[in-house]
Amino acid sequence: MSSTSSLKRSGDLGVAELRPPVEVSWLGRVNFADALKLQEKIVAQKRSDPDAADTVLLLEHDPIYTIGRTPDQSSLRGGSHLPHPFFQINRGGQATYHGPGQLMGYPIIDLRRCGQDLHKYLRWIESLLIEFLGRFGIEAQRREGLTGVWVQQRKIASIGVGVRNWITMHGFALNVCGDLSPFDQITPCGISNVMITSIEKENGKTVSVVEAATAFEKLLEHWVSDLRVEGAWLPSG
Asked: Which residue of the set 76, 125, 149, 189 is catalytic?
């Protein structure tokens, strides 16, 4: 599954212009270390070639734990008990789990062409996921002061982004189906007693990660082509 779509942005007079295409790719199950190397390679290419297309990688991981750039690793609860490998990576945020049944989305976007506003970019990802979940009959929302997407008090998607020279990497983890018990080994996102949920748990229907990725790709194309990003993708001038 792979596609290319064109992202529109508005000029000073409100006239839509075409940006370089956004390349969306479904990679299947990918080892985390390999996915990290691929992201770094694409980021390096975009740094050397400002006209390179923005990219969204959709994939799934074998079981792992990650934590962001923080000296406070209390969310790992010591770490020695973890049943799966652990990576500290260049994103924001506390510990989380990635594994089968989870749709990973890694947008590699040049924010220099999008207003250089990381806050708006994070809110854009949240809005996109909220609309996506609505297509599965799930009413999701933000929670004030917290990054991510929630169904009432239950967290269904985590967001953690790294930025180098205004080029993004990492992104979101959306729980689609499968075993959520590995979250019990950590304090997810540093939030005590947080409940973790999934599409499958919320709507009671079996949805595969491949099906979710296909639906997400279609929605992403719709968003970027119709400029439904509430200013996050507007040029700075």
From this structure: 189
